[in-house]
Design brief:
By secondary structure, the protein is mostly helical. 59% of the residues lie in helices and 5% in strands. The protein starts with a helix and ends with a helix. Its cofactor is heme.
């Protein structure tokens, strides 16, 4: 992107295979002018056929097109991730930070595993209210990291031909792997939510969390 910006200027465009125009903004000033000054025009995002529709089933907020559904998803996330809500997560972050320091002191060469454990611990506790200690080798941690890594690779521009030619998804066999990954994701996160549903009213089993917040509002 930097090479393109230096050669063609701070704002340039590339025509993709599906005849969509990819606009590249390589400097802060024009990005602010466009995304803040004209946010109602440019607030949408590129449609990622593999990462957003096939692998995520159109359920990932990050990949949703701007519209009523995106607004509903964002409203729910904002209720649990705004400044006021984030303050309540400080004890979780502090406990995980202390464990992170201990892990690095004990095994300094394995600092990447320690950082992974920290991130996984904070995310899983906030999302699912898990009280038991979390280790980087726990199956749920391994599966979450595997899922997110797979998604980040699929979300790269040009990673899959189906992003440039969406009609490829209708060719038998082309998207089978992506749909398999989507089912694995559903199974993983559904099992976590089911665990919260079973234990949310049992004292000492789960802390209040994002999943319990959503389940309570389904009643």
């Amino acid at each position: 992107m930097e090479k393109i910006t230096k050669e063609y200027g701070p704002v340039s465009s590339v025509r993709l295979g599906n005849n969509k125009l990819l606009v590249i903004v390589g400097r802060v000033e024009p990005a602010l002018a466009l995304l803040e000054g004209r946010s109602s025009i440019y607030c949408d995002r590129p449609q990622l056929e593999m990462a957003g529709n096939i692998m995520s089933g159109g359920l990932r907020t990050l990949c949703l097109p701007y519209g009523d559904r995106w607004k509903r998803f964002r409203r729910v996330l904002h209720s649990q991730l705004d400044t006021k809500a984030a303050t309540s997560y400080q004890p979780i972050q502090e406990r995980a930070s202390r464990q992170l320091i201990l892990d690095i002191l004990e095994r300094p060469k394995d600092f990447t595993e320690a950082l992974t454990r920290y991130a996984a611990s904070v995310i899983i506790k906030i999302t699912y209210g898990k009280l038991t200690p979390i280790h980087h080798s726990d199956d749920e941690v391994v599966q979450v990291i595997k899922t997110l890594t797979r998604f980040s690779k699929a979300a790269r521009i040009g990673a899959h031909a189906v992003d440039r030619f969406p009609w490829l998804r209708y060719i038998p066999g082309w998207v089978a792997q992506g749909r398999k990954w989507h089912q694995e994701e559903l199974n993983l996160f559904s099992s976590q939510v089911d665990g919260v549903r079973r234990e949310m009213n049992i004292p000492g089993k789960r802390d209040s969390c994002f999943a319990s917040y959503m389940l309570e509002r389904q009643k």
